[in-house]
Structure formats: structure tokens, C-alpha cells
Write a structure and sequence with these properties.
By secondary structure, the protein is an alpha/beta fold. The protein has two domains: 221 residues, 3-Layer(aba) Sandwich (Rossmann fold), CATH 3.40.50; 221 residues, Nucleotidyltransferase, domain 5 (2-Layer Sandwich), CATH 3.30.420.240. Helices cover 28% and strands 21% of the residues. The strands form five sheets. The chain has a nine-stranded mixed β-sheet with strand order 13-21-16-15-14-17-18-20-19, with helices on both faces. Strands 5-6-7-4-8-9-3-12 form an eight-stranded mixed β-sheet, with helices on both faces. Strands 1-2 form a two-stranded antiparallel ribbon. Helix 1 crosses helix 3. It is globular, with a radius of gyration of 27 Å. It starts with 24 loop residues before the first helix and ends in a 10-residue tail after the last helix.
Amino acid sequence: MLRLERPSGRDDKIGSIHQITRLSPANWIDRNVKIGGKAMNLRWRPWWVLPYNLEHHRFPDGTYRRASMEKAGRQVEKSSSLAAKLLAQVQVPWTSALYVAPSAAQLSEFSFRRIDEVVLTSPTLAETRDLDAWSVSRKSFLNHSNITLRSAFRSADRVRGIPADVLVLDEAQDLLLENIPIIRETQAHCTRPEGPIYQMLGTPKSYDNPLEYFWSMESTQGEWVIRCSGCGNRTLEGVGENNVGPRGLICEKCGKHLNPFEGTWMRTGRDDAPVEGFRIPQLLMPYSYAYDPRIFGRMWAEIINKMRFYPRPQFYNEVLGLSYDSGDKPVTREDIRECCGNEHTFLDVEAFDFKIDPRIGNGLVFCGVDWGTGGASKTVFSACHYQGDVFRNFYMKKFEGPEADPEYIVPAILNLLERVRADMVGVDWGFGFGLNSWIRAGFGADKTYEFSHSQMQREKVKYDSSANVFVTNRTAVMSDLFRIIKMRGFQFSLTWQMLRDSGFSQDFLCNHKEATRMGKMIYNHPPGTADDALHSVLYAFLVSQSRYPRADLQ
């Protein structure tokens, strides 16, 4: 908890505000902030406590987090909660906070409806204003703190040169992705020993927007997980449409009522992601008024009507706080988790002989290489084998940094093929056209199979003799791999936690289904994300079909 010094100057009216030195932000908000003339009362909103207290919460690994994002449905008190947290943060003297929204209209709405109304209906806060510097775009306080408000839709020029200890990006789904790094530079000169505070909020639309990009790439992807008191099942993917019952939240396994007041935040992304993420669906909101059965009943009836009558994308966006595409994934996090093994690390290629290791056996080893294209896309090598009827991945390596140099990659991959005693390798033809010739020369042309994906070809796999390449129907062969994953015919050697922390799990989870203008279903992933590990395993799986054709995929 920060220790604050009483600022010199005007009078002692701000003395009561220094309760923040003894209270958590959530408790301070409970005591000092009123929304619509009523206290926030976080006892009925436990899912907001950790987002409020994040900078003061010590996690089990001993760390504190100062960057967060809330991916939320509409009308979940997101803006009210943001205003309350901002007002708590500027009670620390000499704090400069910067609020950024896409449009001037959104800025004005937040300034008047959220900041001003909260301040004017909370007597303690009203006394702390510096009325000589209180306007739509700037809120100053007697403790020398301030909140600056700016819009930045097409350009970030309006925020340049504004120093910020606290930065908030509201309705981030409507900001331009290329403007966000420029906006974040406002915190480059923050001199607080504990560092700046950064927060991003919004309601998702499709995958192709900044909110979903940063959720996938930078956040821990937290979900409010509730354990069923009946069967013990937990909502590991967060609460969703399968939890909507006639009178409240229910367990999708046994149908028993779920109590969200007994929920807890659980990370479903990487523990080491730089931003703490929270998804807050509208399904939780009626419980904020559970003390009044009439209000709760009316709100829950509205949710059921929305589920019945809203277009599916709108229900996912506005109610569940999900990109619609993310609700249409070919495989879920639970699918990947169920396919994980019990190894805490991949086998050491220098220390083990894969052919005689009992975990591998004497079967054939199939490898795959997906060549990186730059940016988020990296070259990934995978090694797999069959364990009974299960296609098992026992090794993956992503080439990053200095290792991404082609002069390093090719010898390294040839060494890996030798170390794992590979029998066959499938390689990406499109981006590896030149590199593949070195693989053929070093490993053997008869054991190297090149694949090129197509969206137009009818046949699942067709050999093009003129180019010496196997052309695939991209959607069809990806569907085959997704199918065996969902059927538990695939296994990772790593545990779920190790697979997730390595970053490989996201390569399998980032794809979603979408339709072309011709109505054809394809798989795609958000800009800035990559599915290289998925395709390296896919190439290994494709070459395995030449030796072990699967009747269930013909």
C-alpha cells in the first residue's frame, strides 16, 4: 500500500481522502463513492474487487500487477467502475491521469455522466475539486492531482506531450491499433518508483480489433470461475450461454443453481502475460441486485429474451463480452487441456535417444516445419508419433530472436531431425520454397514432403507433379486435425500449464471459423497472432497419413 504525504497548501479538507493510505481502493470506493446517490456496495459485486485492488494485490508468486484490461459486456457498470477507480487513484497527491476515448462524444459522456455525477453526489469527493481548473477535458483536485480527458479516433496527436502516471483507454475496440503504442508513450516519463498504471476497457466485436488483439497477445485472460455445489464442476471458460437457466445461472453439467458470489478469478492465459485480464459478462449483473427479487427477476428475464431474440453476434458481444468469432472456435481451451499429458518439459534432444526412450517406443517419428513469415509468425518445428491410435506430440521448438536467421534455422532443424531419428518430415512450401531445398538435400528428398494450402481445391490432398508439392484443401485438413483433437485422438506430452506457459497453446486456440463472401467456411486468426505450432503439427500429421491412413478421416 502506498504511503502518502499530506500535500502542503490550501486547507485540511482533503484530510479525509487520506483514508486511502489505510484502506484498499475497493474499501475506499465502498465508503466514499456513490453511483446514482447510492454506495457501490461491492459485497454485491465481488468480481470488481480484484480489478479495483489490482495494484495493491500481491499474487501468490509475490508479484504486483499494474496493467489490466477489462473485456466486458454492455451495462456491467464498466464506466461507473472506471470512474470510481480513477477517482481513487487521483487521491494519491500529484497523480496525473489520462483518459482516452475514441470520440469526443464518448469523452463528454464520461466527463459529465460518470466523473461529474459521481463527484457531485459524493460529498467527500465534491470538497476536493479545484473549481478553477474543472472542465470537460480536465479535472483538477486540491491535492495537485488531475484527470485529463482526450479523444483519439483517427489520430493520437491530441495526447502527445501529456505525461501520465495513470493511463486509461476506454472503448478500446474502436481505437486504431497503430495509435495505441503512441498513446502508451505518455507514460514513458513516469517517475513513480512502483511504475505507471495502465488500464484498457471495452466491449469486443469481431477478432479484428485492438481489444481482442491485446486480450489474446498480452493478457492473462481471467475468467470469473464458479464451482458447482452439486457436482463440483467449474466454469473454467467463465460463465456463458450454457449457464443461462430459467431463473439464474446454472451448472451446464447438472443444472444446479450457481452462486457467483462464491466465484474467483482464474487465469486462462499465460501467467507471465504483462497485462492482467478480466472478462466481465452481463450474466453477472443481475446478481448485483439480488437483494431485491423484483429487480433481479426483471433483469434475468431480459437476459433470457436477449438470448432468444438477439442475433448471435450481438448476444456474444453485448451480453457475454466475447467476440462472436471466439464463440465459434473449432477447438476450445477445454479440448486442448483434455489432450495434455503429464510431462513438465519436452524431452531434451541432447540428452535422450528418442528411439529407445520408453515414452516414444520404436514406432515411426513424423516431423513438421512451419516457416515463419516475420512479425508474430515464427518458424516452429514439431515431432510426433503414434501411441496406439493416439497421435502424440512429444517435441516442439519455436525459433525466435537470433535463432530466426535462416543460416541458423536450417542446420538446427537438420540436427533436430537427426536427434529425434525422424522418418519423415512435412514442410511448408509457400514460405519455405528456398529453405526446403536445403532440407531435402540434408535430410533426403524421399523423406521430405512439401505442402501448399489452397482454399479453392476440392480434393483434400492432391499431388502437383509439376511443382513436386502436395496441395491441400486448407479448411479440410485443418478440420481433420481439429476433429481428432476434439475426439481425444491427439495428445501433447506437456501438462496444460506447461503448454500454456510456453505459448504453444495459443497457436491452437487462436483460430476461429468465418464465412467468405461466397458463403464458404474458412479458418482465420486475429491480426498479430500466429498459429505456427498448429501448422507444424498439421504437416507432421499429414505425412503420417502416408504410413498410417485413418479411415475415420477419409
